[in-house]
TrEMBL record:
Comp. bias regions, Low complexity: 1-12, 62-81, 176-185
Protein location: Cell membrane
Residue ranges with Polar residues bias: 44-53
Protein name: non-specific serine/threonine protein kinase
Biased amino acid composition, Pro residues: 157-175
C-alpha cells in the first residue's frame, strides 16, 4: 500500500510535467500596515476578523484561535473611525440646508405674486367719475364709500357743496370783485365760503383755543372796550399775535355786527384794512379774531393821557393810508361797501405809523343800482354826515364826511365835539373849523387851525393839501364832496387841490 504523501510536499500534475511545490507561505501583517492596505477593496463584513489568506487559490483559511504567543496587533485589523458621528452631522446639515432653501423659494414665490397683483391693479383703468371737488383746491382724488351695491343704488345724488347753516352761524358772505375786472364772471349769486387771505385767514376757532391764547381773557390782556364788548390781545400756538373782539352775549346788535364783520372783512384784503384771522361761535358767545396792530389807535395818540404830540409826518402818513383804505371800499369793491363808522378810534396804527381801518360791524353793502339807501342811523356822535343823521339816507359820501372830521382832528388836535375844545361846547368841530379852513387856504396861513402842539413844525404845502381835503370833505351837501379816491390822490400829492372843486353828482344823489 503506498504511503501517504508527506504534508511537507504537494505534487500537482500539469500536463506531462511533474512539479514539486512547497507549502503555501503564510503572510504575516506587519504592525505598521493595516490589513486593508494589503487586500484592497476587502470588506470586513464579508470575512471573519481572524484567519490566513492564501493567494494561490484566493481562499481564506480560518484559524480556530490564535496562539498565545502571537501579538494581538498581528492578528486584528487597525481600528477604523466610527461612522455614526459623521453621518449624524451630515444628515442634520442637509436637513437645515433643505429647509432654508424651501423657505427662500416660498418667499420668492410670494414676492412675485404680490408684484404681479400690484401691477395688475395699477394697470386697471379707474372707474369713470366726474371730479366735483374743484372748489377744494383742485383735488382729483375720489373717495369711495365702502357700502354694498344695494346701499350705493339707494344713496341720493351728490349735491353742490354749500356752507352749513347753524342756528347761530352767520350766513356765507357774498363774494366781491374788483370793478376794474369787468371781463370776469360774477359769482355773487352762488353760495361760497370766505376765501382765505394768504398767510392771514385761518377759519374758525374753538372757544377754549382763544381762551388759552388770551390767558383766559385776563385783564392784563385787555386792549380796550366799548359798547360792543371787549378786545383782548392773544398769541396763537404758532406765535402769531391776534386781537380777539368778544361781543356782548345775547345782544341783537352784537349779532348783526358779528354777521357784518364776517360778511365783509373776510372778503376784503388791503394793506390799509385790518385783516380777519377767523371767528368763533360757541353757544351765545361771538368772537372775532383779527391781526394784531401793535401801536394802538389814532384816538389814543391824539388824546391819550400823557401821550407826546404826534409829529406832522406821522399825521400825514396816517391820513394817506386810511384814505386809501376807504377808497378801496368805495371804488374797488363790487358792490361797494360803506363803512358807516369812520372815526379816530377805528383807525389802528402800527409802529411805522401805517394806518389800518378797522371795525366793520356797522358796514353796509350798497349795490350800484341804488342811488341811496335809507337805513336806521348808526355811527358815532360828531362824525355823522348831516344828510344821514337827518333822514337816514346813506351813500359813500357819508363816509367822506366822517373822514373829513378825522382830517380836522389831525390838523387841529381837537376832538369832534365836547367841552374840552376851544370852540363852544354846543358847536361841533366842523362848524367851528369851516370858515377858518377857507380863510387859511386863501391866505396860505394855517396858524389859526394848526395844532399848537406842532409848534409850526410842519410842511406848508402838505398842510395846505390836508386843509383843502378836510374843507371839501365836510361840505354840507353830499353831492358837493369829492370821492375818497380823489381825496387820497390829493393827500399824497399826485393830484392838485384844485381838483377838489364841487363834483357833479347825478341827480337824485345827495
Amino acid at each position: 500500500m503506498p504511503s501517504a504523501p508527506s504534508p511537507a510536499a504537494h505534487v500537482a500534475s500539469r500536463g506531462d510535467d511533474l512539479v514539486e511545490t512547497l507549502p503555501p507561505p503564510t503572510i504575516a501583517v506587519p504592525p505598521s500596515l493595516p490589513i486593508s492596505a494589503l487586500v484592497g477593496d476587502y470588506s470586513p463584513s464579508e470575512s471573519p476578523s481572524n484567519g490566513r489568506f492564501t493567494p494561490s487559490d484566493g481562499e481564506f483559511t480560518p484559524i480556530s484561535s490564535p496562539s498565545s504567543d502571537t501579538p494581538d496587533d498581528l492578528l486584528s485589523p487597525a481600528p477604523s473611525p466610527s461612522p455614526v458621528g459623521v453621518s449624524t452631522v451630515a444628515v442634520v446639515g442637509i436637513v437645515i440646508g433643505g429647509v432654508a432653501v424651501l423657505v427662500l423659494v416660498v418667499l420668492t414665490l410670494v414676492y412675485f405674486l404680490y408684484k404681479k397683483k400690484r401691477r395688475r391693479d395699477d394697470e386697471a383703468p379707474p372707474a369713470p367719475k366726474e371730479n366735483k371737488n374743484a372748489m377744494f383746491g383742485g383735488q382729483e382724488q375720489q373717495m369711495e364709500s365702502q357700502v354694498s351695491e344695494h346701499e350705493k343704488t339707494s344713496l341720493p345724488l351728490p349735491q353742490p357743496p354749500t356752507p352749513p347753516q347753524l342756528p347761530h352761524q352767520p350766513p356765507p358772505p357774498r363774494p366781491f370783485m374788483s370793478s376794474s375786472g369787468s371781463s370776469e364772471p360774477n359769482y355773487s349769486d352762488l353760495p361760497a365760503l370766505p376765501p382765505p387771505s394768504p398767510g392771514i385767514y385761518q377759519g374758525t376757532f374753538g372757544y377754549e383755543e382763544l381762551a388759552r391764547a388770551t390767558n383766559g381773557f385776563s385783564e392784563a390782556n385787555l386792549l380796550g372796550q366799548g359798547g360792543f364788548g371787549y378786545v383782548f390781545k392773544g398769541v396763537l400756538p404758532n406765535g402769531q399775535e391776534i386781537a380777539v373782539k368778544q361781543l356782548k352775549a345775547g345782544s341783537a346788535q352784537g349779532e348783526r355786527e358779528f354777521q357784518a364783520e364776517i360778511d365783509i372783512i373776510s372778503r376784503v384784503h388791503h394793506r390799509h384794512l385790518v385783516a380777519l384771522v377767523g371767528y368763533c361761535v360757541a353757544g351765545a358767545q361771538r368772537l372775532l379774531v383779527y391781526e394784531f396792530v401793535p401801536n394802538n389807535t389814532l384816538e389814543f395818540h391824539l388824546h391819550g393821557k400823557g401821550q407826546p404830540p404826534m409829529e406832522w409826518s406821522s399825521r400825514l402818513k396816517i391820513a394817506v393810508g386810511s384814505a386809501k383804505g376807504l377808497s378801496f371800499l368805495h371804488e374797488n369793491c363790487n358792490p361797494k361797501i360803506i363803512h358807516r363808522d369812520i372815526k379816530a378810534a377805528n383807525i389802528l396804527i402800527d409802529f411805522s405809523f401805517e394806518a389800518k381801518v378797522a371795525d366793520f360791524g356797522l358796514a353796509k353793502i350798497v349795490p350800484d343800482t341804488d342811488t341811496h339807501v335809507s337805513t336806521r342811523v348808526m355811527g358815532s356822535f360828531g362824525y355823522l354826515a348831516p344828510e344821514y343823521a337827518a333822514s337816514g339816507k346813506l351813500t359813500e359820501k357819508s363816509d367822506v364826511y366822517s373822514f373829513g372830521v378825522v382830517l380836522l382832528m389831525l390838523i387841529t388836535g381837537r376832538r369832534p365835539f365836547g367841552a374840552n375844545n376851544v370852540h363852544a361846547a354846543d358847536d361841533s368841530l366842523v362848524d367851528w373849523a369851516r370858515p377858518l379852513l377857507d380863510q387859511a387856504s386863501e391866505e396860505g396861513d394855517f396858524t389859526t387851525v394848526a395844532d399848537t402842539k406842532l409848534n409850526n413844525e410842519y410842511d406848508i404845502e402838505e398842510m395846505g393839501r390836508m386843509v383843502a381835503c378836510a374843507a371839501a370833505s365836510v361840505r354840507h351837501l353830499g353831492r358837493q364832496r369829492p370821492s375818497m379816491d380823489r381825496v387820497a390822490s390829493v393827500l399824497e400829492g399826485s393830484m392838485s387841490p384844485s381838483e377838489l372843486k364841487e363834483e357833479t353828482t347825478p341827480a337824485g344823489r345827495t
